[in-house]
Amino acid sequence: MSLPDPIPLYGPAYKRDPYPLYERMRAAGPIHRVLFPSGVIAWLVTGHAAAQRTLADPRLGKNHDLGNDRWRARASIMPEPQHSQLQAHLLHQDAPKHTAMRRLVTDAFAPRRVEELRPRFQEMADALLDALPDSAGTADLVQCFAARFPFQVLAETIGLPPHLAARFRREWGKVVAPVGPTDPGRAAYEALLRELQAYIAEVVADPGEGLLGRLVTARDDGELTPEELDSMIFQLLVAGQEPVTNQITTAVVALLRHPAALERLRAEPGLMPAAVEELMRLDSAFELTTWRFLAEDADLHGTRVPAGDSVIVSLCAANRDPERFPDPDTLDLDRAQGPHLAFGHGVHFCPGAALARIELRIALGTLIARLPGLRLAIPDEDLSWVPAVLGRGVSELPVAFDRPGCPRSGG
């Protein structure tokens, strides 16, 4: 039986606004063949109910060893030795290994602990806005805030020693973006990988006394292999901050597109927890999940999916499913919020969800309180959306505001 041509999931128009395409895909059915820029053909799940079932389906594994030769030929972009040394983290593990590795990090991101750190996080957010020039009424919120605040929070949370935190380069996070072997940028990509790997080696040699130190102890006690340790540090440093950076930008863009909601939040800051949930539902920084695989050919939502083909869930498409969220394209601060899927679902639900929620509440609350008259400094259509395969966000966010140097929010 011939298969339908895959639907391309790339290009500036798609990254700027993927939701019309997702709407058409949901209407046509819950699962579709799609094409990624690396040439990978995958199966994409789009509806909310189908997404939940897929994310909790015990037949689907995350370990890359389950991928077939067709997938591996296109998707194993990271070269050896880095693929073996940096990809053995939580996102690519199944039980019981996943259970054991996840247990090592949960205490550091527990809701009670991150709530205790809230005053320190607020100090960080205020300090970043204090650093804005008094004479300026414009700024790039990515450069001056969204790309810096999440890393500072992460470093504090995981106990990254300050001298190492000061040397971390944000460009290293780009190693998760596929750059194929024939791409002109391949040499620069591999250089970034080697630099990041050398940095991780320094962290392992001097991890401090927090979570990083406990992970090194777990390696010494035989609970982790050296490759698993390096991979977990890689995941913390990259996945632990860049999605929050992107979520800050998508949330700010959404609020600037809905000025009445922005002003209401300024007047009613108590709405912020509910607003953060609605903003994540409306435009999640985790647009797509990472790969899942069936160990054998099986039916998935009425479609026969071959063993080892990659199965991906569109969290953004699920979060705008009208069968789950009425009028889903509207930002509604009073929405009777059901469970969105911005942090995933099932055993791979994001372990840093509580931390991310606090970061977003502080970030948005501080920006709104201290930058009155906040507005885009360029036309909306000129925003540059990051070309990342799995995530959403803008690479720059030029804004204008009325009175720089406003009093601190008070936390």
From TrEMBL:
The lineage of its organism: Bacteria, Bacillati, Actinomycetota, Actinomycetes, Kitasatosporales. It comes from the Bacteria. Keywords: Heme, Iron, Metal-binding, Monooxygenase, Oxidoreductase. This is Cytochrome P450. Belongs to the cytochrome P450 family. The keyword Metal-binding applies. SUPFAM superfamilies: Cytochrome P450 (SSF48264). It holds the Pfam family p450. InterPro entries: Cyt_P450 (IPR001128), Cyt_P450_B (IPR002397), Cyt_P450_CS (IPR017972), Cyt_P450_sf (IPR036396).
